[in-house]
Amino acid sequence: MELAAWYRWGLLLALLPPGAAGTQVCTGTDMKLRLPASPETHLDMLRHLYQGCQVVQGNLELTHLPGNASLFFLQDIQEVQGYVLIAHSQVTQVPLQRLRIIRGTQLFQDSYALAVLDNGDQQDSATPVAGASPGGLRELQLRSLTEILKGGVLMQRNPQLCHQDTVLWTDIFHKNNRLALLQIDTNRSRACKPCSPSCSPSHCWGESSKDCQILTRTLCASGCARCKGSLPTDCCHEQCAAGCTGPKHSDCLACLHFNHSGICELHCPALVTYNTDTFESMPNPEGRYTFGASCVTTCPYNYLSTDVGSCTLVCPLNNQEVTAEDGTQRCEKCSKPCARVCYGLGMEHLREARAVTSANIQEFAGCKKIFGSLAFLPESFEGNPASNTAPLEPEQLRVFETLEEITGYLYISAWPDSLPELSVFQNLQVIRGRVLHDGAYSLTLQGLGIRWLGLRSLRELGSGLALIHRNAHLCFVHTVPWDQLFRNPHQALLHSANRPEDECVGEGLACYPLCAHGHCWGPGPTQCVNCSQFLRGQECVEECRVLQGLPREYVKDRYCLPCHPECQPQNGSVTCLGSEADQCMACAHYKDAPLCVARCPSGVKTDHSFMPIWKFPDEEGTCQPCPINCTHS
Question: Signal peptide location in the record (predicted)?
């Protein structure tokens, strides 16, 4: 092998992936070519999603980026499960030098694993700076990309782009890739330099000697799917993708099917094995769950484990979601017809519904958990004469007062002017984000007239970003401890164009003084995230009614809880030790040991006796048994 080729393989050796257990996995997006929901925070959104990420579970979409956008956070990405889209951007380069494999589990326009479209032409400002270089992608520099398992390549209208035609794409396409389409436009407005002389043959991703294309297929000996050289001994193991450093299934640069702790396998080890001696199925201590293209010992947070050994976001048919004692969630086969559940948008009969409307809102009446998502759009409150759908009335939103969990996302871009907050969701505790709006957001609040949030019970955003923007009257965005709601390092709050914080404070719109750490969802004692002193019902209070005030209370874990009504309030001492009738310090009426009661038993039958019990109060108010020969009246 020539010295230049050895140098290129040395670069790939330095980029070898760690075992699957140490790999940072992040979610991709699903926006296609649409404009970002919030152009002001678009770059921040991408940074939070991909900082430190090595495997993108979904699509890598880089669109609508200005020329000065710094994309350093993409430099660790090695694998994309879906497609890669670079479009409508002015950046001159995209640092994806470590990207090794595009799997194509999702395809752009149902055909393409890599699409590079409309990058360039427009200047960054209305008045171009004299002598400034035109914007737009100049080189791909995908120097490590050696495998596209499924899907083609589409490159059009990139006037500054060079070297898309010096790449030997047939070497990158997997031999069984039936969608290996090539549509590459080479119309450009600048002259391109040739590949570096060190590139042999003359295939490259850019003009630098570091950008020579590494061939792993077309130079292989007969019978090799991938190789590290032209000799028969250079063949990669059949479970390798993208190339290898040796012949074993532990020498692969990427795995064709599954990565099991750095070893490429056709299947992950089964959770159950069959003992031929005892004719029994036994748990396999080496069993693993499949997660994307990896084998894992447990499913990642927010994913559901199945009996067949996969990690999923939605339980299969005839299965129900259950939560174990340790908090992990799994799918369990129903022993009889599964219990009826509440479905949200995107699920079952609401799969095609765009928004909550008056036509479907009763589907959510009495629901504690919604499997799916909720979206409120202008059409929700405007109605649709064409479908005879009436406008949604504010009082109808009260059906959500019982809601505690959403497995998908909550998206609100329209809300009644008569409601200053979102208090119909006051009991909502968890937004899981198993399905994300635009593939990125579990909570989106935009263009609303609300003044505060009112989501006082919300304790978790299981996945995805929170986007709160263009709510001109909204205060209390910064008084919520968002980091405590998030469950992975790729989550964050993105906000812009809400009411300035100093205006809110100037009007006295601040957290109630008894809110711990100044954290709240809105004004008043019921909107605190936690109380600095005590909690009575839903209100933060200075003290509990332990020694004075009615009804008397006792304290448990900083909660003020009422004594039993039959407890006699005490002066200067506690009235009760708990909420039961046998925990009173003294009785308000009578004592039928050990209970305080409103009256002594009169002809009452106990559970284990056919004889009624008759008692009378003595001078101290204690219930005493009546003599047997008494006549009761």
Answer: 1-22
